[in-house]
Input
Amino acid sequence: MTNIFLAVTFLAALCAPAHAQEKMRVKSEESLFLDLQKTGLGSLTEFQEKKKFLETVKLEKQKVMARMLDNVYESAFEYYRQGNYEDARDLAAKILAMDPNYQDAQMLLEASNQLRGGGRAGMSEKLMIEDRFKAALSYYNEGRIVEAHRKMEEVVKLSPNNIKGKYWLSKMKDDLKDYYSQKGAEEYNRQDMKAALDNYYNALLIRPRDAATLECITRIEDELRAQRANDKLKEALEFYAQGRLRDAYEGLQRALEIRPGDSKANKLLAEVRAEIESGYLASGKKLYGARRYTEAIGEWDKAKPYTANMSYLNKLISRAREQMKTEADEKKRRGEEAARRARAEEEARAREEAARRKAEEEAARKGVSLEEAVKKPKGISEENRLAAQQHYLEGLKYFQNSNYEKARDEWTIARQLDPSSADTAAGLKRIEQILSGGQ
Output
């Protein structure tokens, strides 16, 4: 938000009236900045929206800012070229307020400060360029090649038609490339790989197609990758020794991301993967044996990222789910059977209660005690035997039609009428077997 505020302030400053002494038309200052609202820099006001697009907006802001400042610098340099050092200085200062690392703006600011207010501006500029040229040669003769190159680069940027400056700048580039290459070699010998790379890349920026520089960079990058991969491999081995298999697995993966062809890391990764999978398999089988099927499936699911035999894991999971369904169905059947038995017992109690009340009524009618009324006569009367036979036949019909509840009711009555009937006892026993799941 600070950069946006500065950009808006900068825009307002640039939209002020142009300098009265301008001799040539300079590119319109309003066109130097892109519309911030159109680029999206001023529209992200909601917290969630900022959070969602933060990284994208940050990159886009940097790109827009860089383009915008480059355009402003072109205008500032046009002012400088026309001799309008005051406006050139103001624009350069505003560029540096937004980006203090903009080196060309710093150069233009210093040059404008030196030249503004001079009575003979053209001569003053010539003298200033000559002073910088001499300073660059002085640095060069002293062996201060970096400072010499930077100073000569300023000469060429401030005076693009300076033939001497271009010649010496080209010569210094070769020397500067050699300087960075030498520094890179020195840092490499000290085993400071990062500093060596920085110097070699600086050399590559000067001569992008230099084969020797590219070869050095490639070699050092390979060594750095090998070093990083070995560090990750060492860390993974330590985790492995501690029994931290998943940490070891992740460390080995990171090592292989750096060096995919490392045979040692690949071999160890396969071993660690197999151990992790084996652990999850054993844990799942133990839970399966304890009939904790959901937990077992969870363990086998965890093994999937490490397995080389997915079909085997899916088979185990499928079997566990089938067993869960089988046991759930059996539990449901047993519940239904228990409910059926409870109803039968209730019905039997109801029949007994009805028989008891009937016996009481019969005792009252005969004027005898209840014990005498329900006292069983010796032997079975012919009437009870015939009635029992009739109830047995009715029950047999129900049994043949698979109506086991009705069959049991009829045979229960038949047994009460004739307890000695073997057929009735066998029928009741068979029904109990059927209803309890037997054959």
